[in-house]
Amino acid sequence: MLALFLLVASTHFAALLSPGPDFFLLLRAGLVKGLRHADGCAAGIALANLLSMLLVLLALGLLPSAGGPLWHALQLAGGAYFVWIGVQALLARRELALPEAEAGVPGAWRQGFSEGLLASSLNPKLPIFYAGLFGVLRHTAMPGWGLALSMAWMTAVVLIWDMALVRLLGHPRWRAWLQRRVRALDRLCGALLLALGISLAVGALALS
Known about the structure:
Helix content is 81%, strand content 0%. By secondary structure, it is mainly alpha-helical.
């Protein structure tokens, strides 16, 4: 169970490392409206992640027993989704263009919080991603305290990483490092997602 949690946690963190919509929202907030606004944005994103996890766990709790055909179909679909996005990340050849800092009116924490919460809540990939992660954990019959710990861990990681990211990207050295390493980060994220997807799909096929 510990090994599976570590795989899930590392996959989650690797997905944070690979720049996505939240990354660019935070970057713009930090460069244009200042750290206070960006910190609020990070808190809103973290809350949206927590709400997505709660929604997913509620939906999974309404499913029939873990041994039913509907559950196996969900596992297989989740595994296929992770394999697909993992392959996409492995094949990606993107370049990361980062904007320069702009002189703008400093934003408020509350405004940033609202922007982060709304933007992440409207991201349809977020609940799908967590459905796959928690589908893996629920399949192993992880107890309730383990699921609660997993949610607290991933929410804290999102918040701390996003707040740290804004500060790191304020330094030209770190911005240049990220631009050079974006493909390597995509490969890392893709490999972990692929491993998790295959594990989930194989488990579903073995039990069907």
